[in-house]
Amino acid sequence: MRFVAKTLYGLEKVLSEELISLGAGEVQIANRAVLFEGDMSLLYRVNYAARTALSVLLVIADFRIRSKDDLYKGGSKINWDRYMDPDDTFSIVPVINSPHFGHTGYPGLILKDSVADYFRNKTGRRPSVDNSNPRVLINLHISNDTVTISLDSSVVPLFKRGYRQDQSVAPLNEVLAAGIILLSGWKVSATLIDPMCGSGTIPIEAGLIACRIPPGKFRQFYGFERWKNFDEDLYEKIKYDCNSLIIRSAVKIFGSDISEQTIQVAKANVARAGLNDVIFIETSDFKDLRSTDDIGYVFLNPPYGQRIQPEEIDNLYSMIGTTLKHNFPGNTAWLITSNKESLKHIGLKPKEKHILFNGALECVLLKYEMYQGTKKQGRL
Ligand SMILES: C[S@@+](CC[C@H](N)C(=O)[O-])C[C@H]1O[C@@H](n2cnc3c(N)ncnc32)[C@H](O)[C@@H]1O
């Protein structure tokens, strides 16, 4: 079976490594996606355990077209009754970039007709479209002459883990948070601190990684559960296998934030994720914090400045640079922001730079290495 796991820009490589470790074959990196092969148990496993996938599609057909009619014909050749019954509802998500079609809606209508006619010819009945709560969600991708038709096995995007019911002002997408941590090379032997933790997404994703808790553990539903060929016993076995890898970890993860209200949100989310024994949350201004581990990791997702005066945001970034330099010697810091102007006020030279997107905002993720203070150098 051929699959496509979608992800955020910049996380393709991290996701491909995750997929290989989950047992995927023929792994191939694409734009915001990774193609791979495997069986149904792998599809269930990736949905349940991959931290950096947004959704997983099962490819059911791909073909070339020379005209609009070819789309109808290609759709009619699919054995739709392998996946759904005439009484089921379906919906089509079109992603179209093709000279054959002027507007996106039209190819979706052609495929809809071909699905409906397939069942009407065979059974006299036809499935109906339900765009709000379909039983089967079909993805129609047309790039120039190439059509790929897939079923969305996730439906509810995989960043919706289920532990974060309370949000702070600008929460990070969970997939982005997990991706940043996996990109950073953080090992659980190093203390992790997020001193501007907001609703706690980075500490929680780090806690899940450290304790090997699958990100799907808190979810209620995946799209594949509604497919005609859903194998519940197999799914239960996959969940059991994944959950049996969970460990108690001695990891130390700290989250703090200047806002007391936000800290209450973070504490509730940490509790919901069952991570009270590994994540410690407190209210604090970053400038008052000091490292407790001289090989620690600091993750920073500071305000980008949309709701703050320019001078104030420049001062905040300047404070971040000074605090890292003086209070976190020996530590590695990773900072994500879209505010490239204020970044100049940090006054530290990055060792690595990655481009990522936080929603529609293009961001940089920067790595800073803080040197040990003069005291230690003097001793050498
Ligand atoms: C972009 S939000 C972080 C969102 C977070 N990553 C999440 O997923 O919810 C930035 C946070 O920085 C906090 N903040 C601003 N200035 C601060 C300071 N001087 N010290 C600590 N936290 C600060 C804000 O209260 C806000 O919660």
Name some characteristics of this structure:
eight-stranded mixed sheet, single chain, 380 residues, binds S-adenosylmethionine, seven-stranded mixed sheet, 11 helices
CATH class term of the largest domain = Alpha Beta
Average pLDDT reading? 94
Write out the strand line-up for the largest beta sheet, numbering strands in chain order: 2-3-1-4-8-7-5-6
Low-pLDDT residue spans: 374-380
Outline, from the CA principal axes?
elongated
What's the number of extended β-strand segments?
15
CATH superfamily caption of the largest domain: Vaccinia Virus protein VP39
CATH fold descriptor of the largest domain: Rossmann fold
Assembly of the depicted chains: single chain
Q: How many whole angstroms does the radius of gyration measure? A: 24 Å
Binned, the helix content reads 25-40%
Strand content: 15-25%
Report the span from N to C terminus.
58 Å
CATH architecture of the largest domain: 3-Layer(aba) Sandwich
Q: How is the main sheet built?
A: 8 strands, mixed
